[in-house]
Design goal:
Length: 334
């Protein structure tokens, strides 16, 4: 990788471009990377030059698709063949005679030493052990709550309180289980499975949830069957979580659309809802449970769902749906 890259992207590069890729202005890190001196002008520099200087070969094509109208917001790419980089694109209206495109490149640094990796692994093991012990303690507390419910069986208020305690403990146990899974690598047991049949079964399982919210689930599949290597149990868990969230986000009378499309490049599976319009920040951090004010089953489940999809070689992103809501787009290559 270009030797200036790590120092130039201490946090992130910010660049403003015209739709043809010409840079209008950029922050100091990008200017230093281009070798344009210490000023704020970038002369005739282009986004392709940034890509060449940073060894980020995917950036020009990603920028071109976005400029042509594709709704790409954030994507993790490779720089220098090894290091990870998160590229975010967004349109800024009201500038000059045409909208500008803001490009942010944030280097995802890897631990520099084996000691750092060993320390992170040790923290993960400790967290996993903590969650295991935590679940055991929750089981004990649930036994106490069950005793209280029996003890106060003749008092409706006491029974109601005991039920609420059990419900809260069950939620905490589920969260602990999800955190435990997030501290471990995703290990897949791949078998040839029919993805279409799997999705249809997931939809059937969620019909009661949709009916309770007066939400319709519609589907459209490009193929009657589609067999590919899957860990069906883990993929079911991931897609269950995404579909459940879409149903919960939809208003009464709304529709959740489930689509599966195929092409020479692979397949695209999407779930669209008609819920509230997400902010740009929320779209970009949708699968990151650390951005939420509090941990809950939904945020942890979505984070785990993304990891499972990526472990299968897929990519997942959140797009704006029309006229409202969002689309979870999941892509698998050939």
């Amino acid at each position: 990788m270009n030797e200036t890259m790590p120092d130039a992207i201490t946090n992130a590069l910010m660049i403003l471009c015209q739709s043809d890729g010409r840079i209008v202005t950029a922050d100091r890190g990008a200017i230093l990377l281009l070798g344009s001196g210490g000023g704020t002008e970038t002369a005739s520099a282009t986004i392709s030059q940034i890509a060449a200087k940073s060894d980020c070969v995917e950036l020009p094509a990603m920028f071109a698709r976005f400029a042509a109208g594709e709704q790409v917001f954030t994507k993790a790419v490779t720089v220098g063949g090894s290091s990870g980089c998160e590229v975010s694109l967004r349109r800024l209206n009201g500038f000059q005679s045409q909208p500008l495109i803001a490009v942010e490149m944030n280097l995802l640094r890897q631990p520099a030493a084996e000691e750092d990796q060993a320390a992170l692994l040790e923290v993960g093991r400790a967290m996993n052990r903590l969650m295991h012990d935590f679940k055991n303690q929750m089981s004990g507390l649930k036994l106490y709550a069950a005793y209280l419910k029996k003890r106060f069986a003749d008092q409706p208020e006491g029974v109601e309180i005991a039920d609420k305690i059990v419900q809260s403990l069950n939620e905490m146990t589920e969260n602990a289980s999800l955190i435990g899974k997030l501290t471990r690598p995703v290990e897949l047991k791949l078998l040839e499975e029919d993805l279409v049949a799997l999705i249809e079964q997931i939809i059937q399982n969620h019909l009661p949830q949709a009916a309770a919210r007066n939400v319709e689930i519609a589907s459209q599949f490009a193929a009657a069957t589609l067999r590919l290597p899957l860990d069906s149990q883990q993929m079911r868990s991931a897609l269950d979580t995404v579909l459940a969230q879409a149903i919960d986000s939809s208003p009464g009378g709304g529709t959740v659309m489930v689509e599966l499309q195929t092409s020479r490049d692979g397949l695209r599976f999407s779930i669209s809802d008609e819920g509230d319009v997400l902010s740009e920040e929320h779209r970009q951090s949708f699968f990151n449970f650390l951005t939420n004010e509090r941990l809950n089953k939904t945020s942890l489940g979505l984070a785990l769902a993304r990891r499972i999809i990526e472990a299968h070689g897929g990519t997942v992103e959140v797009l704006a749906a029309q006229p409202a809501g969002k689309t979870i787009s999941i892509k698998f290559g050939n």
